[in-house]
Design goal:
The protein is of the alpha/beta class. It has helices at about 10-35, 35-45, 60-75, 195-200, 215, 220-225, 255-260, 265-275, 340-360, 385-390, 425-435, 460-465, 485-495, 510-530, 545-550; strands at about 80, 85-95, 105-110, 110-115, 120-125, 130-140, 145-150, 155, 165-170, 205-210, 230-235, 245-250, 280-310, 315-325, 330-335, 335-340, 370-375, 400-405, 415-420, 440-445, 470-475. The chain is globular, with a radius of gyration of 24 Å.
Length: about 550
């Protein structure tokens, strides 16, 4: 991945920021001064309280959360959606799989392998489908299941998979020194499960079976198998949504190797072949039969959308996003069953509210409109963000930038700002200038192979072509952070993340979080008052999408 280096465009971004500082320094200072640790703490203390029941979509916790956010928007003077309220409906379907009725069998060469939900398989129907029955669907090994015209890569070239089930490897193809083929160690858009599923559906495949690989993705198969029988939410898809297969399943790498071996195929050899350009999908002499049964329950969640109309270019939009939801009430840990989600993502929601207040405190609105979106059901698969991207309140072609905030760390003052997928877009140049004002340097994600860029709410916008950035404060490697700060990070990741322990604490040090929010403000403020239209860098997989989107405008 290209690292950020000094360029003319960086100088221009810094100049734009400095210019706005000279011409409207008092205005910027007024906005910055509204961003305080006390305000952030007050918001988090409410949103992460037991009264909000873990902020699960379509529950009383959602009702309380929506009321809190909308009341704050209203009190700050943030305008609701044009000709509408603050709330954008997000139709959801809750899917509860019938474990007893769900069973798949792989057969071939006189042998059968039974796939059992929660033991050696996870499975789900595609979309709002209750039941899928499969009878001797031919299995086709599709390699990595990637079609990337810009890279000259097509695993399906000349192969008809209509009505068949494709078996796919996860992530990107492996290159030299065990790096990923397309972007060094960093996972590309083409390696995501959603890209592979949608591509398979476009090619006519009926279903997809993914081969889980702990070495490639960073966590064991048991981690997903444990949740195989839990209910989950999906968005209700419409004709504007991308196609998906009728069903998907995931099996372990060991099980896949046994299946292929039963048909005289070697998974390691197939994987090696699939990692080279020119590979083509091929049948493996196996078929799939069985059933996936699901109970459906429809409900409605909500994005909260407010904005400040721009002074000179109100039809261009700078968007801030943060998801308001968490995972609700679950299994008790030490007697506590409420998963409060204080860090994830009451902090991001608090940041969104602080930014709304900061922009409204300015004596004049920025040149471009500024939009604030508290998204729904991120924890269920970025559902609220996907819904907005399919049903944008403000045109995506005129959406200049998206700045996403997710899980800010209350562990002290930071000297770094970690930009996930650093080197992707010109938005980083604005953020670099903003971070520099607060004495910070941008740094890249230390584990890009795990694809954090594709796991938060900026991604549905990027997937449509809109330049988007996801960044959070943290310590640089040099000088080495304090042992206390490292301990706080490690404790959160091991005992706090998606656990009841993720609660607001009076001993939080929010100085770093406050700095994050100020950097978000300075970044968005500079973009909102600039005349440039920032884009993805030329080597980004999203650049062609954006160029076509802007041309079509």
């Amino acid at each position: 991945m290209k690292r950020l280096i000094p360029t003319l465009s960086i100088v221009l971004a810094a100049t734009a920021l400095a210019s706005s500082s000279h011409s409207s320094g008092d205005a910027r200072t007024r906005g910055l001064n509204t961003i305080t640790s006390d305000d952030i703490a007050a918001h988090v203390r409410v949103l992460a309280s037991d009264e909000y029941e873990g902020r699960m979509p379509a529950t009383r916790g959602e009702e309380k959360t929506l009321a809190y956010i909308t009341e704050r928007f209203r009190s700050f003077g943030i305008s609701p959606q044009p000709n509408a309220s603050y709330l954008q409906e997000v139709p959801l379907v809750k899917k509860s799989i019938d474990a007893e009725a769900t069973r798949l069998v792989v057969a071939g060469q006189g042998k059968e392998t039974t796939l059992v939900l929660g033991e050696n398989m996870t499975a789900k129907t595609g979309g709002a489908v209750e039941r899928v029955t499969v009878a001797r669907s031919e299995l086709v090994f599709g390699g990595f299941g990637i079609v990337a015209e810009d890279l000259g890569w097509n695993d399906y070239a000349g192969v008809d998979v209509t009505g068949k089930t494709v078996v796919l490897l996860i992530q990107d193809p492996r290159g030299a020194a065990d790096s990923l083929y397309f972007k060094g160690r960093a996972l590309s858009h083409y390696g995501t499960g959603i890209h592979k599923s949608e591509t398979a559906a476009r090619k006519g495949a009926r279903g997809v079976i993914f081969i889980h690989d702990q070495d490639a993705i960073g966590y064991p198969f048991a981690a997903i198998a444990a949740n195989a029988k839990r209910p989950s939410f999906e968005r209700v898809r419409g004709p504007e949504s991308a196609p998906i297969p009728e069903f998907t399943a995931t099996i372990s790498k060991d099980l896949a190797a046994e299946m292929f071996a039963s048909a005289g195929q070697d998974l390691a050899t197939l994987t090696e072949a699939a990692s080279r350009k020119g590979f083509r999908a091929r049948p493996v002499g196996l078929s799939l039969s069985g059933e996936i049964a699901t109970e459906l329950e429809y409900s409605t969640s909500h994005n909260v959308v407010g904005y400040i109309p721009g002074r000179d270019r109100p039809d261009e939009f700078v968007v801030y996003t943060a998801h308001w939801d968490h995972v609700g009430i679950g299994a008790a840990v030490d007697g506590d069953s409420i998963y409060n989600g204080a860090v994830d993502n009451a902090t991001g929601t608090a940041a969104l509210l602080e930014l709304a207040q900061a922009y409204r405190a300015l004596p004049d609105a920025p040149s471009r409109s500024v939009v604030f979106i508290a998204t729904a059901a991120e924890e269920q698969g970025l559902l609220g963000a996907y819904h907005y991207a399919d049903h944008p309140v403000f045109p995506l072609a005129n959406t200049i930038a998206v700045i996403n905030m997710d899980a800010l760390f209350p562990f002290g003052e930071f000297n770094g700002m970690t930009v996930v997928a650093l080197g992707s877009s010109e938005l980083e140049e604005y953020m670099e200038a903003a971070a520099s004002e607060l004495g910070r340097k941008l740094q890249t994600d230390p584990s890009p192979e795990f694809g954090a860029f594709f796991r938060s709410d900026h991604y549905p916008f990027a997937k449509k072509g809109v330049p988007a950035i996801f960044a959070v404060g943290g310590p640089l490697d040099t000088p080495e952070p304090s042992a206390e700060m490292l301990e706080r990070f490690n404790t959160y990741m091991s005992a706090g993340y998606h656990h009841p322990e993720d609660e607001y604490r009076d001993d939080w040090d929010l100085s770093g979080v406050t700095g994050d929010v100020k950097i978000y403000f300075l970044t968005g403020y500079a973009i909102a008052n600039d005349t440039r239209v920032p884009n993805w860098y030329p080597d980004s997989e999203f650049r062609a999408l954006r160029d076509r989107q802007r041309e079509a405008r």
